[in-house]
Amino acid sequence: MANDLRVNVITHPLVQHKLTLMRKKETGSKDFRELLEEIAMLMAYEITRDFPLEEVTVETPVAPCKAKMLTGKKVGLVPILRAGLGMVGGVVRMIPAAKVGHVGLYRDPETLKPVEYYCKLPGDVSERAFIVTDPMLATGGSASAALTLLKEKGAKSIILMCLVAAPEGVRLINEEHPDVPVYVASVDERLNERGYIVPGLGDAGDRIFGTL
Ligand code: PRP
Ligand code: URA
Hints:
The protein is α/β, with parallel strands linked by helices. Helices cover 31% and strands 30% of the residues. The strands form 4 sheets. Strands 1, 4, 5, 6, 7, 8, 10 and 12 form an 8-stranded mixed β-sheet that branches. A 3-stranded parallel β-sheet has the order 9-11-13. A two-stranded antiparallel sheet has the order 2-3. Strand 14 (190-191) and strand 15 (197-198) form a beta hairpin. Helix 1 packs antiparallel against helix 2 (29-47) and helix 2 (29-47) packs parallel to helix 3 (88-94). The chain is globular, with a radius of gyration of 18 Å. Bound molecules: 1-O-pyrophosphono-5-O-phosphono-alpha-D-ribofuranose and uracil.
């Protein structure tokens, strides 16, 4: 991997094993969806490692107990439609209080530029810590456009969580959104002439929704 990239690669063995199963071309939609949700759950566990805690006192059936609870900003989860939807279930299993917004973007197959078609976010945008999800970070155009949109709507704190990235995509986010930490399970080799990640896992949206 190019060492100029600012990216957090989740190397946990369970994540890597499940990603390998997802890459296999014979893996069908049902398994692909389940694996993506499981990986999203494990990545959410890693990404939230530094979330602040406060001490509270609760009553156990036995005695009062000083214990820890999450404090700080409420979480907003924003999948980039369509494929980002496949990561929502796993993250909300870990952070059930998260509000879920949606940003609709598709990549024009000719220009590879993102085209926005939908945006619905929680009302209190500036008070939330956002996690933007999309399995694929290829040219980075879609994710960068989603991050710009969120910032225009008032978001102050954003993490980008993807499954597989190309170096080109990570570089674009580093350049255009240096304030946004990027988490992935793999940085692959490169993009091909059609803007697909090599080796990647193919078209994530089509594999999730069976629209191949
Ligand atoms: C895919 C993927 C990303 C985007 C990545 O979505 O889910 O959103 O391409 O490419 P980029 O980094 O070059 O912008 P796609 O446009 O195929 O839409 P879909 O999720 O509706 O299938
Ligand atoms: N979008 C995908 O779904 N896969 C890629 O490899 C690139 C963009």
